[in-house]
Amino acid sequence: MLDAKNLLEQFLGPNAADSMRQTGSSAKQQLDGMGMGGFGGGAVVGGLLGLMLGGKKMKKMAGYGGAAAAGALAFKAYQNWQQGKAAASAPVAGPADFANVDPRFLPETASAADGQPFQLALIRAMIGAAKADGHIDAQEQKSLFEQVEKMGLDAGSKAFVFDALTQPVDIAAIAASARGIEQATELYLVSRVAIDVDHPAERAYLQALGHRLNLPAELIAHLDHQVQPDA
Q1: Per the confidence metrics, is the pTM higher than 0.90?
Q2: What is the pLDDT of residues 16-56, one digit of tens each?
């Protein structure tokens, strides 16, 4: 049986779920202890998403908590947007925010709109974004398949990843998997992490995804701010 939570953790590396459940200095210590091994950090370099993105993305993505940090970052962006703050100067998620995430923004809280685990929708979104510039050729895909074989995944998880890698990107299906604005913000945020906005094709993909997710432009700006390296 496919373990969606475990698959997401292995896809991105250590997640920040435990950190989110802690408070104060204990959360900060755990997050600091991750170093580069968080959401797009060192652990990702050895994972599937890191291989798909290549070293050029690692510096931009470094420093975030882990797989479950998507909920914390999305929730912070959502809060800032609701409070009418300017995106460019809005506060970014810190240890206290990671410890107090609205449950609606945690990936395991509710299934996707299609009834499947939302973690799978997040993985599809990241793979779709990583493939947006069309740079994954046959040889790179072969290498990715070899890495998946080494991850120790169950048969169902491997089949899911293989299918996601080989099937054409369906941006409409990715957007349709969101159940409410909370999941829509997370799908956009994880896609944004896997996107190089300086690349025209990737930027166009991200803009199309935001449109299909029906996210307000101001909220998108807050989501972008949460994952920018200089935020």
Answers
A1: no
A2: 333 322 323 333 333 333 332 334 333 333 357 776 776 54
Report the distance separating Cα 40 and Cα 62, nearest Å: 5
| Residue carrying the six token digits 């054409």 | 168
The 3 state secondary structure assigned to the chain is CCCHHHHHHHHHCCCCHHHHHCCHHHHHHHHHHHCCCCECCHHHHCCHHHHHHCHHHHHHHCCECCCCHHHHHHHHHHHHHHCCCCHHHCCCCCHHHHCCCCHHHCCCCCCCCCCCCHHHHHHHHHHHHHCCCCCCCHHHHHHHHHHHHHCCCCHHHHHHHHHHHHCCCCHHHHHHCCCHHHHHHHHHHHHHHCCCCCCHHHHHHHHHHHHHCCCCHHHHHHHHHHHCCCC
Question: Nearest 10 degrees: CA dihedral of 199, 202, 204, 209?
Answer: -150
Q: What is the rounded radius of gyration, in angstroms, for the C-alpha atoms of the chain?
A: 16
Judge contact between 141 and 166, C-beta under 8 A.
yes
Each residue of 179-191: pLDDT tens digit?
999 999 999 998 9
Provide the residue ranges of all domains of the chain, joining segments of one domain with +. Answer: 4-227
